[in-house]
Each structure stands twice: as structure tokens, then as C-alpha cells.
Structure to design on (906 residues):
């Protein structure tokens, strides 16, 4: 009997039950609401706003096991019951139910509402991703009992005229701001865009009547045909906006009698084979975005999409694909119907940036957005932000985390400050110093400043750092321990004066109005007389190192407004002041873009001194002489040679040729970082954590570098020697003279056959003895790049192509490629292994060292030292970036392992 009476209530000639005949009935002030799962995370935030906005329309809620609780609101508490029956027994009456239950419970919640409350007329389902089976049962229950269901996966409904919201967060926390009364109804598959569209319309002078977030689950219970019918019977609504996504034929079946602007999105989804975003947004049928565009164009009698440049409309409507075009399209459609906006336009939602930077790029006019003053109180906050020098990042636990480096698990290519190590392999050493310090590779002028600043600290003649390093070396220590000994002496007081000078310069030049625009720190036009002089920046007598630094920058053509100011002061600039001026020049641009912090910038003098000291300390004391390092005059060191040439000389005692320098710098880039999980990075980060980054002035950068150095060794850092030793063993009797010549005269295939036979015999012997401890060939295979018929390490491929483009040959690299092929052909491997990046490093290193090795100028010990040291050079830059990142982001002692995660092994 009940079903029959409801059938009589069906309106509009639908073949199924539709109880709502007008949009005025969707949400009214007479509606009373019960919310299921009212204390859930979403409902507890949203329901109080809806309740207050609607004048108290939520009479009760349910939360199993929490009966007797209340949901507090500013106009009174909403009582909570264990179930709907208890709420009814307590005397509450309601005609609307809102479902916030999980997907698996939504069907039962709907059944409970319908079964126990004969007064129920509308259900609003917020839950998304309800199964098709449950959605069909919900549909059937609603039809059998004459109940209109809205959703699922929607944000409910709202009526701007009556100031009512039921279910969901339409209009956000302040619905009245977006839902201004007017003449336009909104029906949207997207809940979030329902509010956005209302806001766009309000800016253009159009208010709203009823807003329905239909949702986009597999079933849309209250869909476009029902909306079109209710729209026709609503005298308040003169037109409508529809936001549609791919999937479903609801819109094709809708019969609109009033003007409509349809926004159809999701063309990109047509190539997908599964749902993304909203569950119903499936591709594969003839209901994709382009199909829906055609449906609407046929309905409206238009032959193209509406855009501001091509405003195609009719009196029936228009079709857009960008929600930003909705207001203009609606205004044009309504003008064709002789209808003006509801009220004066309140502005527009075009992008109005409150601050910006073009990063020095010469942008076309249409991309150069003007910066406007923000609204109060944001304008005051922006003004304060613009006076702030440098960026600030929030502190967090940085154990096994980094804001400097990361590793791509698919390619195993790491990156530092967004630059991959493959790209870093093409940079000069100066550019990689800049990458570590200023977070990008810098420009030509940066390189002209970095080279002399680091080179000034390479020659350690007469310095305690050299005496300490030499004593450590003669005691038989590995290269990392030798450098750690020297680093320990370059303590905080060594750079205290330079840091103080740098702070002074940054603050005074900022106060004097040195611009934040690109290249400001190089300006020849800035009036340096506006900047006050500071105490301790000059002395009465010349400072030899300061003068050498200034001359070195001048010889390289480096520019700096800070150096120009310093030289204008009376007296002779001190070494600390010159180093500070160079550091300020390097830091000014990144500081102005808030790419780095003040703490990072103020660390530059220390880092530059440390880098130079560790490069110098890697060379034997005999290489340091008054005015000369490795036979290189100080003037050349500071004024002409690149850092790559200087570091190479420290390593091998002579400056490199073009090919060797290229190989050396390639190695440096490849080895900069292996991500925050590397042992060396953990040592550096642990040292910062122990000092306490929340008091950054107490962090000792030299000690943090020592942490990196102590966490390198023969298994991590010095392991490059294994590949070199293997290659030396294979080529020792080959008669190879020059590994870079194409006519090297070596039968690589025969060499590979011999090597594979030896390895196969070794494996057989091990297995015969029952041993599973079989050594791997150095540089062959990689756990990530395996199990294909032919395997490649993308890093090795990149380097091979890089050198091939230069027309360079490396017989050792060629041997490795022949080796992996022969392992397969001889049946030793199931497939063709990859040549991994360790093999490339060994091949590049040995190519540089082969001639001195054959000439007897270096021996096995020196070869191992060189292989170890060449790892330490770049990794100190990568670890410097980790140290600085942890200094800015970390918390005290945040690299500890909690006791509960530790274990005792007996």
C-alpha cells in the first residue's frame, strides 16, 4: 500500500519515482535532518557549519556505541544516538537523512533510515566509491518507498534563497560568502567545483538559487534529467550551469527548457581504461568528454565551444571546457535572452599575484603578470615578508629524510637540489660547488668568484692543517682520515670575522636599497657610497691573501658590487672582508629569491675555506711551497686555472689535459650524492643532529664534514679501487700503451673470453667446496637493472653516449661491455648483465691513471689513494648540501633510533 501511494506522488511523467517537482523543494527551511556517522572526521567538521547556516535544521545524528554524546555547535548541541530507531524513540522527527558512513556500511545505513522512518522523503549520500551492487540496492529501496536520493560521492545540496545547506560542505566554512541569492541554478558532478562555480558567478554579478552536488559515483541517483525537470518548475531560476565529467548518459537524456551553460571537462581521460578521480569518470564507451560536448552543442544549436576569443552562444546555451569561461558564457547567453545580471559585478577571479619573481627571465608580456597589493591584512604580511632576507623552512625530523637530495628508485639516478647527477656530470667543478651552496649551478660570474675563493685556501704551506694532515698520512691513515685531521683545525674561529663581515654587508646593502632583481649583486650602477663603512673590514697594512684574492677575481673578470664597495673604503681590505664580499655576491640572488636562508648564506665563508683546505690537504706536504702548489704559481692558482685543474693537480701532481679534465669533472658530477640514505650522508647528518640544528650557530660545519669523512671507507668510498684493481689485473700483460686510442691493438673479445673462463673456473671450485660465498665481478650487474634479456644501467648508457659524442675512446669501458656479453655467451649468466656505474667510474679513473701507472710514477698504494680521494672531493660537496639542509630543517638529535626499534644480539 505504501509503494502505491508513493507511486501516485511521482511527478513529471518519469518512468520511475521522482518526488521533487521544483528546485525549491530540494532544500527548504522546513526540512529536518538526521546525520548518520555524525561524529566522523568529515561530518564533525561540516555538519555544525550547515546547522548554523540553515538556522538549526539538524535534529539528531547517529554514531554506534556513542549514544548520549553531542555534537557542539554555536547555536546549541546536536544529540547523538546509537541508531535511528533510538533517535525516533526520543521524539525527533526528520524527513531528510545524510549518510557519512564508509562505503561498506552505506547500504545498511540507507536501509535503516527507510525501514524505521515513514516520514523520510530525501537521502543525501556523501560516501564515495559505493559498490555497484550496493548502489543498485539503494536505488531499488528508494524507488520502492518513494524517496529521492542525492549522490553518492556528492557534497549535498544548498539553497541560497532560503539559506539552507544539507549534507556536505558546499560554500565552505562560510557558505554565505559564495552562495549569494540570484537566478542561476548549479548542477555539478564535482562538489568542490560547485562552490568554485558559485564564486565565479558571484564575481560576474550572478547569484544562485539551488546548488546540487550530484556526485560522480557509478550511480548518480538524482541526475541531469531530474534536475532539468525541477529547473523548469522553479520560477526563481532563469538559467543553469552544469559541470559534467566523462561517463554516463544522464546529460543526453535531459530535456532543458531554460538556458544552460554546460562545462564539459576530462578530454584527457579518453585514453584511460580505468576510473580516475570520480568513480564514474570511465573511458571506453561513447560517453567521453567529446561525446558530451556534441550532445550539448546539438541541444543548444551551436557549432563550436565558447571561448573568450570565439564567443559562440545561442539563446539556449553554450558549451565551455574551462570553468573560468563560465561567467562570460553565461552573461552572453543571458544577453541573448534579454536578461541582465542579478547585481553589479564584484570583480573577477583572474590570477592576481601578491608577489612574484621572473627569475631574471625575459618573459613575453602575456606571461609577465603584474604584482598587485594584497587585501588587508595580507598586504601587511606581504610587506613584512618582502623585508625578510632569505627563506625559512619549517623544522622537522630529518632522520632518513632530505630536502637536498633524493634517489629515483626506478633509474637509480640521484639528484641534488633538483639537478640529476647525470646533468651534474656535465658541469664544471665550480658549478657543482654552486649547486651544493646556492642550490643551482650558478652563472658564469659565480664560477669566476668560486674558483679563486676556494683556490686561496689550497696551498697550506706553513699552516697547522698541513702539518696535521701530513702526520696523519705518515701514520698510515686512509685519505678520509687524513682529510678529517685537517678539517678538525678549520674550526668556528677561523671564519668568525668573515661571517660577521658577511652579516654586516647583507644587512647594510639591503637597507641601502640594493635591488633584489636578477644581477643586482653585479651592478656597476649601484651607488656604493650609500652603504656605511663597517669596523674591522680594512686595516692600515696590506693583507697578502686578501690582495691575491682580489687580483684573482679581477684576472678572471669577476664582478661584485660588494667588492667594489670594499675597495672604495679607506685602508686595505682584510682577508675576511674579501671572502665575505665574494660570499655576499654569490648569496644575494638566491637570498632575494628566498631560495636559501640567512644561515645558509652566512656559512659560505666557512664552506669555501673548508673546500680549499681539504683539496690542499689531499696532496703530500712536499707539494706545498711558498707561493706554489704542485708546481703551480699562486697567481695562476687564483687567477687562471679552473677548480677542476687544481683538484686534479692535487690528486696526481700535475695539471690535466683536456680529455682528462673532462673525465675528472664527469666523475665529480656522478659522485656528488647517492641520496640521504648513503652512509656518508648519514654521518654528516648525524653530526649536525648531535650539535643541535635548532641552535644553528652552534653547529660546527667542519665537524659535520668530519662526520661524512668518518663514514667513508674501503667499502663505501674506497670501493672504486676494486674495479680498478680488476681492470689492472686483466690488462697487466696486454701491452696497452694508451687507453684513449682507437688503435690500441688489444683484442678485447679474447681478453673477455679469458676473463670469463677464469671466473667460471673460480665459481666451479667454490661450488665444489660447498661454498656459497662467491665474489661478484666488480662493476657487473645491478640488483635494480636485471632480469631482461639484455640489461642496461641508464647511468652507464648516459656516460657512454656523452663520451661518444666527444669522439673519445676508453678501452676499459669497451672491455666491460665485451665482458657482460661474453658472460652470457659462455653460459655463466642467464642474460646479458648490465655494466653498472661503478664500472664506468673505474674505467674513467684508470684511463687517467694508466700512463703514470705504467711509467712507475705511481704504485698500487697511490692508485688506491687516488681512487679513494676522487670519491671524497665530490661527496664533500654533496654532504655539504645535506649538512646545510639539516642545519635549516632538522631538529636536535633527530637522527637517533628510538629504543623500541633497537635490538640486542647475543
Amino acid at each position: 500500500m505504501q509503494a502505491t501511494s508513493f507511486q501516485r506522488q511521482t511527478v513529471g511523467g518519469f518512468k520511475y519515482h521522482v518526488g521533487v517537482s521544483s528546485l525549491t523543494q530540494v532544500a527548504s527551511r522546513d526540512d529536518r535532518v538526521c546525520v548518520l556517522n555524525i561524529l566522523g572526521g568529515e561530518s564533525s567538521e561540516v555538519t555544525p557549519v550547515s546547522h548554523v547556516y540553515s538556522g538549526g535544521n539538524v535534529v539528531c545524528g547517529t554514531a554506534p556505541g556513542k549514544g548520549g554524546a553531542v555534537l557542539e555547535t554555536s547555536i546549541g548541541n546536536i544529540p547523538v544516538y546509537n541508531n535511528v530507531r533510538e533517535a525516533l524513540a526520543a521524539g525527533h522527527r526528520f524527513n531528510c537523512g545524510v549518510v557519512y558512513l564508509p562505503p561498506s556500511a552505506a547500504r545498511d545505513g540507507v536501509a535503516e533510515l527507510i525501514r524505521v522512518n515513514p516520514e523520510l522523503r530525501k537521502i543525501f549520500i556523501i560516501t564515495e566509491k559505493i559498490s555497484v551492487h550496493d548502489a543498485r540496492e539503494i536505488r531499488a529501496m528508494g524507488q520502492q518507498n518513494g524517496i529521492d536520493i542525492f549522490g553518492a560521492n556528492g557534497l549535498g545540496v544548498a539553497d541560497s534563497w532560503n539559506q539552507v545547506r544539507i549534507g556536505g560542505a558546499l560554500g565552505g566554512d562560510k557558505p554565505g560568502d559564495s552562495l549569494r541569492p540570484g537566478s542561476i541554478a548549479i548542477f555539478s558532478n564535482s562538489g568542490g567545483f560547485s562552490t568554485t562555480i558559485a564564486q565565479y558567478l558571484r564575481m560576474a554579478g550572478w547569484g544562485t538559487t539551488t546548488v546540487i552536488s550530484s556526485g560522480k559515483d557509478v550511480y548518480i541517483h538524482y541526475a541531469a534529467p531530474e534536475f532539468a525537470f525541477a529547473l523548469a518548475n522553479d520560477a526563481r531560476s532563469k538559467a543553469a550551469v552544469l559541470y559534467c565529467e566523462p561517463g554516463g548518459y544522464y546529460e543526453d537524456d535531459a530535456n532543458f527548457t531554460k538556458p544552460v551553460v554546460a562545462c564539459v571537462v576530462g578530454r584527457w581521460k579518453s585514453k584511460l581504461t580505468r576510473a580516475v578521480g570520480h568513480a564514474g569518470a570511465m573511458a571506453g564507451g561513447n560517453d567521453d568528454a567529446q561525446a558530451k560536448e556534441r550532445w550539448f552543442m546539438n541541444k543548444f544549436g551551436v557549432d563550436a565551444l565558447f571561448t573568450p576569443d570565439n564567443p559562440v552562444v545561442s539563446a539556449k546555451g553554450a558549451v565551455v571546457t574551462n570553468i573560468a569561461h563560465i561567467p562570460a558564457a553565461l552573461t552572453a547567453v543571458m544577453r541573448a535572452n534579454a536578461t541582465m545580471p542579478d547585481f553589479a559585478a564584484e570583480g573577477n577571479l583572474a590570477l592576481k599575484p601578491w608577489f612574484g619573481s621572473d627569475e631574471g627571465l625575459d618573459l613575453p608580456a602575456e606571461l609577465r603578470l603584474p604584482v598587485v597589493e594584497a587585501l588587508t591584512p595580507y598586504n601587511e604580511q606581504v610587506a613584512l615578508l618582502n623585508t625578510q632576507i632569505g627563506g625559512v623552512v619549517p623544522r622537522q625530523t630529518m632522520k632518513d629524510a632530505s630536502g637536498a637530495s633524493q634517489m629515483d628508485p626506478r633509474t637509480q639516478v640521484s639528484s641534488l637540489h633538483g639537478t640529476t647527477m647525470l646533468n651534474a656530470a656535465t658541469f664544471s667543478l665550480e658549478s657543482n660547488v654552486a649547486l651544493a651552496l646556492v642550490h643551482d649551478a650558478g652563472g658564469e660570474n659565480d664560477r669566476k668568484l668560486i674558483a679563486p675563493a676556494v683556490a686561496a685556501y689550497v696551498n697550506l704551506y706553513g699552516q697547522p692543517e698541513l702539518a696535521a694532515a701530513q702526520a696523519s698520512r705518515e701514520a698510515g691513515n686512509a685519505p678520509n682520515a687524513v682529510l678529517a685531521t685537517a678539517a678538525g683545525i678549520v674550526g668556528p674561529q677561523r671564519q668568525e670575522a668573515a661571517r660577521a663581515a658577511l652579516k654586516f654587508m647583507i644587512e647594510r646593502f639591503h637597507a641601502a636599497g640594493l635591488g633584489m632583481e636578477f644581477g643586482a649583486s653585479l651592478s656597476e650602477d649601484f651607488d656604493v657610497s650609500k652603504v656605511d663603512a663597517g669596523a674591522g673590514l680594512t686595516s692600515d697594512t696590506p693583507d697578502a691573501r686578501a690582495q691575491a684574492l682580489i687580483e684573482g677575481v679581477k684576472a678572471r673578470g669577476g664582478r661584485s658590487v660588494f667588492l667594489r664597495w670594499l675597495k672604495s673604503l679607506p685602508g686595505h681590505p682584510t682577508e675576511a672582508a674579501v671572502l665575505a664580499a665574494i660570499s655576499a655576491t654569490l648569496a644575494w640572488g638566491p637570498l632575494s629569491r628566498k631560495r636559501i636562508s640567512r644561515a645558509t648564506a652566512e656559512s659560505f665563508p666557512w664552506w669555501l675555506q673548508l673546500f680549499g683546505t681539504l683539496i690542499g690537504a689531499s696532496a703530500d706536504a712536499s707539494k706545498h711551497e711558498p707561493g706554489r702548489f704542485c708546481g703551480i704559481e699562486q697567481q695562476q692558482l687564483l687567477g687562471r686555472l679552473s677548480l677542476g685543474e687544481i683538484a686534479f693537480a692535487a690528486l696526481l701532481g700535475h695539471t690535466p689535459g683536456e680529455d682528462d679534465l673532462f673525465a675528472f669533472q664527469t666523475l665529480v658530477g656522478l659522485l656528488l650524492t647517492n641520496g640521504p640514505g648513503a652512509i656518508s650522508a648519514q654521518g654528516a647528518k648525524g653530526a649536525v643532529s648531535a650539535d643541535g640544528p635548532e641552535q644553528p650557530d652552534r653547529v660546527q660545519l667542519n665537524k659535520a664534514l668530519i662526520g661524512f669523512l668518518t663514514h667513508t671507507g674501503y667499502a663505501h668510498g674506497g670501493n672504486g679501487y676494486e674495479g680498478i684493481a680488476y681492470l689492472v689485473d686483466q690488462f697487466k700483460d696486454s701491452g696497452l700503451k694508451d687507453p684513449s686510442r682507437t688503435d690500441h691493438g688489444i683484442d678485447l673479445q679474447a681478453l673477455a673470453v679469458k676473463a670469463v673462463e677464469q671466473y667460471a673456473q673460480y665459481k666451479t671450485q667454490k661450488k665444489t667446496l660447498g661454498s656459497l660465498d662467491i665474489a661478484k665481478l666488480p662493476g657487473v650487474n645491478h640488483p635494480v637493472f636485471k632480469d631482461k634479456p639484455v640489461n642496461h644501467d641508464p647511468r652507464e648508457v648516459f656516460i657512454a653516449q656523452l663520451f661518444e659524442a666527444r669522439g673519445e675512446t676508453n678501452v676499459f669501458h669497451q672491455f666491460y661491455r665485451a665482458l657482460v656479453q661474453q658472460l652470457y655467451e659462455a653460459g655463466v649468466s642467464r642474460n646479458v648483465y648490465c655494466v653498472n656505474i661503478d664500472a664506468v667510474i673505474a674505467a674513467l679513473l684508470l684511463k687517467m691513471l694508466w700512463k703514470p701507472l705504467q711509467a712507475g710514477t705511481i704504485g698500487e698504494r697511490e692508485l688506491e689513494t687516488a681512487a679513494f680521494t676522487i670519491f671524497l672531493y665530490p661527496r664533500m660537496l654533496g654532504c655539504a648540501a645535506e649538512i646545510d639542509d639539516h642545519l635549516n630543517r632538522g631538529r636536535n638529535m633527530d637522527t637517533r633510533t628510538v629504543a623500541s626499534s633497537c635490538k640486542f644480539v647475543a
Summary: The chain has a mean pLDDT of 92. The radius of gyration is 36 Å.
